[in-house]
Amino acid sequence: MRGNKGDRTLGKDMTTGKPLPIILMFALPILAGNIFQQLYTVVDGIVVGRHVSTEALAAVGVGFPVTYMLTSFFLGIGLGSSVLISQYYGAGNLDKIRVVLRTMHTFTVIVSIPLTVLAILSTEMFLGLLRAPDDVFEPAKLYMIIYYVGMLPQLGYNVNAGAIQGMGDSKTPLYILIVSSLLHVVLAYAFAVVMPWGIAGVAWSTVISQAVSWGISVAVIKRKYPEIRFRFFDFKIDKRACADSLKVGVPIGFQNALFSFGMMVMQPLINGYGTTFIAGYNAAIRVDGFVFMPVTSIATAITTFVGQNIGANRDDRLNEGVRATGILSVGLCVLLCAVVLPLQDALLYLFTSDADVVAAGKAYLIRVIPLYAISTLQYMLIGILRGAGQSLIPTIATLVSLWLARIPAAFALSHYFGANNMHWCYAIGWTLGLAILIPYYYKGHWRKGLINDDAETTE
């Protein structure tokens, strides 16, 4: 083990024991947390779609690619610090975990303020580029501006949650998400329906619940993990910790931002088919999010597993863990597809009472969900490579699958075969991405890891 300056009594040590049970038990709280986090979007959709208007439901969907693009870059950097922390945890170096966490906390506070101002000022420009329909433009603008107010707590929570998960503790973020999600449910209904503030109420409920989750995460680190805690107003950036986090996080953030920009490029295509089609698509992606959550949860778990074992020089454990979780994730995806597809009508009617909106949503679900096994394998390989600190190839694979396959296919399919058939573009993109990831994975260059504990890190 490299640079062992402390034990691994915090969190969960994933460097010993049978890999599959360890990964599964780590993934289950993440899955539960993702379910509660998905409540943010599902509750927004139900409250807005059934209690405000179809236009409001479409407005939330139109604004999503923009809000995601402007926040996802820094969320990717937060994931980079999580990978670094998991490798230091595997190496038993708690001192450097604290340095990384404090550095990323400082970085988040510094960048979030100008990012928030930029986001608010650019709202109208982006909605214009997206060709948002006239009846959707103003509610989408209002929702986005309020949403941006919560950018700092959103980024702050994700950095803290990523650090906790990097040490193998997936239960604590779950408990925090349960509290914030339940709070969001109560506030969304109270603000949007009882008050009634409409779409603004849903946006404010999101901002408040995000601020609460950030505050709880800071308090948890202070009390539960005193060995790595930092003072909230102790702003200091360690050059090496920042550089290593950015080495992993910038490609991920760049991928996230360009991926979201790709969604924006496709959004005018979707918007061009009218409010009903937009609302149906928006409802469908909320349903489809639940199907994909086990995949993303296990991918997060395998990232931490790979990171800790590479940090501990336990390369011998990687193959067994990767093989077992790959089979598990594909099996879960197939099972969930078999459950969701027969219930698609009932699930879509949760968001609307309009039969045309439901029909538009079904067009998406029946073309995307049955082929999710392809995407499952892609996400698994991305999670493995990121755990090793290799984020460049996953970024290339994701962007190639989006820009060279999904987007061109969407425009071509919709032009020649109609709006509903554009959704086949997803499977086309996933297949191309997998074709890039598989050869790189089997070459094995990714196994060398990221950290070098011989280098000094300042306190």
Per-chain topology:
Elements: H1 19-51, H2 54-90, H3 94-121, H4 123-129, H5 134-149, H6 151-166, H7 171-194, H8 199-224, H9 239-271, H10 275-311, H11 318-340, H12 344-348, H13 355-368, H14 372-387, H15 392-417, H16 425-443
Helix pairs in contact: 1-2, 1-7, 1-8, 1-10, 1-11, 2-3, 2-5, 2-6, 2-9, 2-10, 3-5, 3-6, 4-5, 5-8, 6-8, 7-8, 9-15, 10-11, 10-13, 10-14, 11-14, 14-16, 15-16
Structure description:
- It is a single chain.
- The protein has 459 residues and is an all-alpha fold.
- The chain has one domain.
- 78% of the residues lie in helices and 0% in strands.
- It contains 16 helices and no strands.
- The longest helix is centred in the N-terminal third of the chain and has 37 residues.
- The two termini are 22 Å apart.
- 55% of the residues are buried.
